Amino acid sequence: MKKILLAFIVVLAFTACKGDEGPMGPPGNDGVGSYWIPTEFIIQPNQWKLEGNPDAPGSHFYVDVDLKELKDDIFYDGIVVGYMAVALDNQDFPTVKQVLPYTTPLVEGSRNYTRTYDFDYEIEAVRFYLTYSDFKTSVRPSETQYFYIIIAY
Q: What three-state secondary structure class fits 40?
Protein backbone atom coordinates (compact mmCIF):
# COMPACT_ATOMS: atom_id res chain seq x y z
CA MET A 1 0.00 0.00 0.00
CA LYS A 2 2.84 2.42 0.88
CA LYS A 3 4.49 1.75 -2.50
CA ILE A 4 1.26 2.51 -4.37
CA LEU A 5 0.80 5.77 -2.43
CA LEU A 6 4.44 6.77 -3.08
CA ALA A 7 4.08 5.98 -6.80
CA PHE A 8 0.87 8.06 -6.95
CA ILE A 9 2.59 11.05 -5.25
CA VAL A 10 5.59 10.83 -7.63
CA VAL A 11 3.32 10.68 -10.70
CA LEU A 12 1.24 13.59 -9.38
CA ALA A 13 4.37 15.67 -8.67
CA PHE A 14 5.66 15.28 -12.24
CA THR A 15 2.33 15.86 -14.00
CA ALA A 16 1.92 19.33 -15.49
CA CYS A 17 -1.38 21.14 -15.79
CA LYS A 18 -2.42 22.15 -19.29
CA GLY A 19 -4.39 25.17 -20.38
CA ASP A 20 -4.19 28.96 -20.33
CA GLU A 21 -3.03 30.86 -17.30
CA GLY A 22 -5.85 32.34 -15.28
CA PRO A 23 -6.38 36.03 -14.46
CA MET A 24 -4.13 37.89 -11.97
CA GLY A 25 -5.39 37.72 -8.42
CA PRO A 26 -5.90 40.70 -6.11
CA PRO A 27 -2.80 42.32 -4.58
CA GLY A 28 -1.82 40.79 -1.25
CA ASN A 29 -0.20 42.08 1.90
CA ASP A 30 3.56 42.34 2.24
CA GLY A 31 4.98 38.96 3.06
CA VAL A 32 7.56 38.02 5.60
CA GLY A 33 10.99 39.08 4.40
CA SER A 34 13.67 41.57 5.10
CA TYR A 35 14.14 45.19 4.19
CA TRP A 36 17.49 46.98 4.06
CA ILE A 37 18.26 50.65 4.59
CA PRO A 38 21.88 51.58 3.78
CA THR A 39 23.06 55.02 4.90
CA GLU A 40 26.41 56.77 4.38
CA PHE A 41 27.90 59.34 6.77
CA ILE A 42 30.90 61.45 5.76
CA ILE A 43 32.62 62.73 8.89
CA GLN A 44 35.00 65.67 8.49
CA PRO A 45 37.92 66.06 10.95
CA ASN A 46 36.39 69.19 12.55
CA GLN A 47 33.17 67.30 13.42
CA TRP A 48 34.84 65.11 16.08
CA LYS A 49 34.13 66.30 19.63
CA LEU A 50 36.40 65.49 22.56
CA GLU A 51 34.93 63.61 25.52
CA GLY A 52 37.07 64.22 28.61
CA ASN A 53 40.23 66.26 28.98
CA PRO A 54 43.00 66.12 26.35
CA ASP A 55 45.35 63.16 26.96
CA ALA A 56 43.38 62.06 30.05
CA PRO A 57 42.69 58.35 30.59
CA GLY A 58 39.35 57.47 29.05
CA SER A 59 39.29 60.49 26.74
CA HIS A 60 38.05 59.88 23.22
CA PHE A 61 36.39 61.57 20.25
CA TYR A 62 32.79 61.14 19.11
CA VAL A 63 30.33 62.38 16.48
CA ASP A 64 26.54 62.20 16.83
CA VAL A 65 24.43 61.85 13.70
CA ASP A 66 20.68 61.59 13.14
CA LEU A 67 19.25 58.43 11.61
CA LYS A 68 15.48 59.00 11.49
CA GLU A 69 14.92 55.60 9.82
CA LEU A 70 16.06 53.84 13.00
CA LYS A 71 12.66 53.57 14.66
CA ASP A 72 11.86 51.75 17.90
CA ASP A 73 10.70 48.55 16.15
CA ILE A 74 14.08 48.33 14.41
CA PHE A 75 15.90 49.18 17.64
CA TYR A 76 14.20 46.30 19.47
CA ASP A 77 13.75 43.72 16.70
CA GLY A 78 16.01 44.70 13.79
CA ILE A 79 19.70 44.50 12.96
CA VAL A 80 22.04 47.49 12.77
CA VAL A 81 25.55 46.98 11.39
CA GLY A 82 28.29 49.61 11.04
CA TYR A 83 31.11 49.73 8.50
CA MET A 84 33.74 52.21 7.50
CA ALA A 85 35.66 52.69 4.28
CA VAL A 86 39.39 52.18 4.73
CA ALA A 87 42.28 53.12 2.44
CA LEU A 88 44.80 50.28 2.15
CA ASP A 89 48.31 50.11 0.68
CA ASN A 90 48.98 53.84 1.01
CA GLN A 91 46.02 54.76 -1.20
CA ASP A 92 44.64 58.29 -0.97
CA PHE A 93 41.06 57.03 -1.16
CA PRO A 94 39.10 54.23 0.55
CA THR A 95 39.50 50.87 -1.17
CA VAL A 96 37.72 48.43 1.19
CA LYS A 97 34.95 48.41 3.79
CA GLN A 98 35.65 47.16 7.29
CA VAL A 99 33.05 46.21 9.89
CA LEU A 100 33.09 48.23 13.13
CA PRO A 101 34.79 48.16 15.53
CA TYR A 102 37.91 48.66 13.43
CA THR A 103 41.28 48.78 15.20
CA THR A 104 44.59 49.66 13.55
CA PRO A 105 48.04 49.39 15.20
CA LEU A 106 50.13 52.50 14.48
CA VAL A 107 53.70 53.69 15.06
CA GLU A 108 54.59 57.37 14.85
CA GLY A 109 58.13 58.01 16.08
CA SER A 110 58.29 56.70 19.65
CA ARG A 111 54.48 56.58 19.88
CA ASN A 112 53.12 53.02 19.58
CA TYR A 113 49.34 52.88 19.88
CA THR A 114 46.11 51.63 18.34
CA ARG A 115 43.32 53.68 16.82
CA THR A 116 39.81 52.23 17.15
CA TYR A 117 36.65 53.35 15.40
CA ASP A 118 33.36 52.09 16.81
CA PHE A 119 29.69 53.06 17.06
CA ASP A 120 26.56 52.66 19.09
CA TYR A 121 22.99 53.59 18.37
CA GLU A 122 19.70 54.57 19.91
CA ILE A 123 16.30 55.33 18.43
CA GLU A 124 16.82 57.77 15.51
CA ALA A 125 20.52 58.40 16.26
CA VAL A 126 24.01 56.95 15.90
CA ARG A 127 27.24 57.88 17.68
CA PHE A 128 30.63 57.15 16.12
CA TYR A 129 33.71 56.87 18.36
CA LEU A 130 37.42 57.34 17.78
CA THR A 131 39.66 56.10 20.59
CA TYR A 132 43.46 56.04 20.88
CA SER A 133 44.90 53.32 23.10
CA ASP A 134 47.34 55.83 24.65
CA PHE A 135 44.56 58.45 25.05
CA LYS A 136 46.68 61.08 23.26
CA THR A 137 43.60 63.11 22.40
CA SER A 138 45.56 66.35 22.13
CA VAL A 139 46.20 65.02 18.61
CA ARG A 140 43.02 65.88 16.70
CA PRO A 141 41.67 63.65 13.90
CA SER A 142 42.98 64.86 10.53
CA GLU A 143 41.26 62.67 7.93
CA THR A 144 37.77 62.52 6.48
CA GLN A 145 36.08 59.23 7.41
CA TYR A 146 33.33 57.41 5.53
CA PHE A 147 30.95 55.40 7.71
CA TYR A 148 28.04 53.20 6.64
CA ILE A 149 25.11 52.03 8.73
CA ILE A 150 23.01 49.16 7.38
CA ILE A 151 19.59 48.62 8.94
CA ALA A 152 17.87 45.28 8.34
CA TYR A 153 14.40 44.44 9.55
A: strand
